[in-house]
Amino acid sequence: MPTTDITETITNAEWCVMRVVWTLEKADSHTIIDVVGQQHDWKAATIKTLIGRLVKKGALATTKSGRQFIYTPLIAEQTAMDNALTDQLDQMCAMCRGQAFVHALDQTELSQADIQELIDHLQAKLPTAPATVACDCLPEGYEGSC
Amino acid sequence: MPTTDITETITNAEWCVMRVVWTLEKADSHTIIDVVGQQHDWKAATIKTLIGRLVKKGALATTKSGRQFIYTPLIAEQTAMDNALTDQLDQMCAMCRGQAFVHALDQTELSQADIQELIDHLQAKLPTAPATVACDCLPEGYEGSC
DNA sequence: TCAATTAAATTACAGTTGTAAACGAAAAGG
DNA sequence: CCTTTTCGTTTACAACTGTAATTTAATTGA
Q: Which residues contact A140 (CB under 8 A, 6 or more apart)?
């Protein structure tokens, strides 16, 4: 598998464009510019640039429809979000992850179904979970832990 | 409160340096260069640059000790991690957050205590949780939802 | 005291990102 | 047909990032 995960190459501003294309499922540039332009104070030209970069990066597909293009996502939204969250966790000290989860959870509104699913997964994990998770911030030999 | 959250200005490469300083609690540049240099294939000069930028950004404090500096973190690791994870979630569609959590959870090793705490928090949230969470990717008026 | 070492600060430099204007081709209106 | 509008492409440009060499100032060993 190529190590170059496309989701890691998409920038913050570009995610804003992806979000509307994901939600609309497909859209022409006029619609994207209109919708994104309402959320962010960006000029049409700016949004055009972002669309162009997303196409070049392989995040959006184009289909010619008359004189213009219809843009559609080439990556699944949920998958991209799953990866983004996992990548974020992977960058932090293993010891911090649990509490970061707790904190994030408290700040996030979740549906009952999602909450129940989380509880189920957690309960399944509990029996085989370690008593403690060690810090992984230092290389071998520098075991000052934290 | 100033809107400029320092944690948002710290780059990926800089986080790598912060992780070791957090774990060591305090360190001189030689130690940082040694430890970070073992994890990443960076030249000493590169790590010095990162340290300098972190000081300028207010993420590291310096204390003169003889001819050199001792560096200490000016921001708490757990707080920074909490914010990082929350920021990540805030950038994604509200509908995706629950499943992203589930996915991330499955990928992450957590201690029994953390798991139990998560279960407790989730169980507390359950009664007042909404049946569904709506997409928040479009501005008012474009209610195509998703 | 003078050279060699060290530590921090300054400078470098290409690639990415945010932000956008300008350009060129095609279409639509007259 | 010719002008105006539209849509995509090219070009622009400063700030930020990753990566690092060079310089300067102080320190230490000889």
A: none
| Residue boundaries of the structural domains of chain A | 6-73, 92-128
CA A87/CA A106 separation, integer angstroms: 20
| CA distances for A49 relative to A15, A42, A61, B138, angstroms | 13, 11, 15, 20
Burial class for A61, CB neighbours closer than 10 Å (0-12, 13-18, 19+): middle
Among protein residues, the one whose C-alpha sits closest to the C1' atom of C10 is B49
Contacts of A89 in chain B (CB under 8 A): 85, 104, 107-108
- How would CATH label the architecture of A6-73? Orthogonal Bundle (1.10)
Which pLDDT tens digit goes with each residue over B85-141? 999 999 999 999 999 999 999 999 999 999 999 999 999 999 999 999 999 999 987
Q: What are the residues facing B71 on neighbouring strands?
A: B27, B62
Task: Report the DSSP beta bridge partners of residue A73.
Answer: A60
Contacting B residues, span 95-114, partner chain A, CB-CB under 8 Å: 96-114
